[in-house]
Amino acid sequence: MELRQYLSVLRSRLWLVLVTTLLAAGVGITLSSETLSYAARSTIYVGSLPNAADISSDRLAAIDRIVLTFSKMIDSVPVAAEAVEALNLDVDPEDVVQATEVSPEPATQLLYIEVTDRDPSVAQSLSNALAEAFVETVQEFEPGDPESTVPRFPAKVYERATLPVEPEPTDQIRTILLATLFGLVAGVALVFLLDYLDVSLRTAADVERKLELPVLGVIPALGAEAPFGGRPPPATERRKGAG
Q1: Which of 20, 76, 102, 122 gives 187 a disulfide partner, CB atoms 3.0 to 4.6 angstroms apart?
Q2: What are phi and psi for residue 39, nearest 5 degrees?
Q3: Cα dihedral across residues 184, 186, 191, 196: positive or negative
């Protein structure tokens, strides 16, 4: 099939491509979120445990293991519940867990606690409350040496979250563009599928394209329903024929 034949197929059902594209774009607008959200981040320092040498012969590997363990503990329902209770918020702890992301800084003993919320002050309060709740909880399991010059607490709040002023970028434009592109591709594919399944012959071009045979000649059919574009005779000729 030549390029002009592809274009002819698309032109014959261009309305279907447009409808499919518009429907997909509408779905993308519906699914995309335009609600602004703010992210606040606090930082926790993971100290050297007194028994760190017993965990592994490699101290750095031991600390990495501790940091990973603390990450999972922070992003949990029990710690979130303590933070919510301390702030006296009417929020489900599981929702707080979903809005929290804990990530370690590579090659360091720092943990970042980032909380996202539509209210910047709530995001700030929850991030700080999670950090404080976790520090209190983990010190009950692994008490450090508060008299030491070097901090040997299992964890301590290194930096409190500040009030975020810039909202997080939304994915609305990206979602709409992807949905529109998907609708366009789906519409084009549907047009070619319908054309492939359609075995009817309406024009001489259809005969050549589907039968792959050249058309040597066309006998026009009389009447408005002529399949190959025939035209009915003029009214004067029909009256003469009737007479």
Answers
A1: 20
A2: -115, 130
A3: positive
What does the domain layout of the chain look like in residue ranges?
Answer: 1-34+172-198, 38-159, 200-243
Reading phi first (left if > 0) and then psi (alpha if -120 to 50, else beta), residue 229 is in: left
Nearest to 130 by CA among 47, 42, 70, 37: 42
CATH 3.40.50 correct for 38-159? no
* Residue 222 per-residue DSSP state: P
> Which contacts (CB < 8 Å, 24+ apart) does range 143-151 have?
144/47, 144/49, 144/50, 145/50, 150/48, 151/45, 151/47
> 238: Cβ–Cβ under 8 A, 6 or more apart, which residues?
232
Task: Report residue 229 as tokens.
Answer: 């574009």
- pLDDT per position as a tens digit, 218-242: 666 655 555 545 555 555 554 544 5
With residue 110 as reference, give the H or E element that holds it.
strand 110-117
Cross-strand partners of 40: 115
Give the whole-angstrom CA distance, residue 112 versus residue 162.
Answer: 13
